[in-house]
Amino acid sequence: MAPRANWKGFLRLSLVTCPVALYPATSESEKVSFNQLNRKTGHRIKYAKVDADTGEEVDNEDIVKGYKVDTDTFIEVTKEELENVALESTRTIEIDEFVDRSEIDPRYLIRPYYLRPDGKVGHDAFAVIRETIREMNKVAIGRVVLTNREHVIALEPLDKGLMGTLLRYPYEVRSADEYFDDIQDVKVTKDMLDLAKHIVNQKAGHFEPDKFEDQYETALIDLINAKRAGKPIRAKERPRGENVVDLMDALRKSIGRDATGPTEAPKKPAKKPRKATAGQKEMLMPITGKKTAKEGAAKKPAAKPQRKSA
């Protein structure tokens, strides 16, 4: 099932306009998640919205937004008033300017989206805007309203579509000065720099996301499987950092270690690397995740096991 669009409207470059839809480019729904339980009964915890003064539960239709002026004073703002805020970007992404990609400070990047034509019309206009940005080797800057807030969005070509990245406003980015002012000015010698560069060259590679493994996610799955199988849970020894006394000696030892590999033999035989899949890793209990059409046809859905309280 295709994901739902977060936003639908129009993309406009001067007088060239086309209908478009905006989709989230990332997802965290495949990660292991937990519910909060009552330790005594094993039942899930339910949160209720209650009046802070009376303690009575409040129905959703009676809940409105309020801006806090002081301790006991709020300015009430209704949903209709928020929707009536007149912003053209509510329905249209207007391209305001074009900038070089290198000029965008990484601190301003929030999250990526996919932008594609919406429906069967407007593909020609979309292609003109996309290829113009591609040929000019620029990033288009516009504005879009998501979740009742206007965001700056940077658009750049990605295959046949556009990738839109939400950007932060200047007031949302903290100055680095208050964090970096106390860092001491240290003179790095050429010998140290040469040794460090040698380590970098030994570890040089290419950016291949398929090689990344969420080790914490894997450890969580192992923990859940072990508890479900009734196996004892033993705490693993945490790595301890060591104070570097002789920096030059540490750099030299690092070169030797990286060149020869780990000095200690692995306790368990190394597992063959597996290609990353789009959904969950193997678990004894079924977890809803992304599956390809072939996987869905090849395997029948397993019966959902009954939860047992620990």
Describe the structure.
The chain is α+β, with helices and mostly antiparallel strands and 310 residues long. The protein is 23% helix and 22% strand. It has helices spanning 79-83, 123-136, 177-180, 190-202, 215-228, 247-260, 293-298, and strands at 7-13, 16-24, 65-70, 73-77, 92-94, 97-99, 109-117, 139-146, 149-158, 161-167. The strands form 2 sheets. The chain has an 8-stranded mixed β-sheet. The chain has a two-stranded antiparallel ribbon with strand order 3-4. Strand 9 (149-158) and strand 10 (161-167) form a beta hairpin. Helix 4 (190-202) packs parallel to helix 6. The longest helix has 14 residues, at 123-136.
Classify the beta-strand content into a percent band: 15-25%
Considering DSSP H and I runs of 4 or more, what fraction of the residues is helical?
10-25%
| pLDDT < 50 runs, ≥5 residues | 261-280, 286-310
Structural Rg:
27 Å
What order do the strands of the largest sheet run in, or round the barrel if closed?
A: 5-1-2-7-10-9-8-6
Our count of helices gives 7
**Terminal Cα span:** 35 Å
The residue-averaged pLDDT reads 82
Structural class by sheet pairing and helices: alpha+beta
Tell me the overall shape.
Answer: extended
For the biggest sheet, the summary is:
8 strands, mixed
Instruction: Work out the number of β strands.
Output: 10
Order of helices and strands: EEEEHEEEHEEEHHHHH
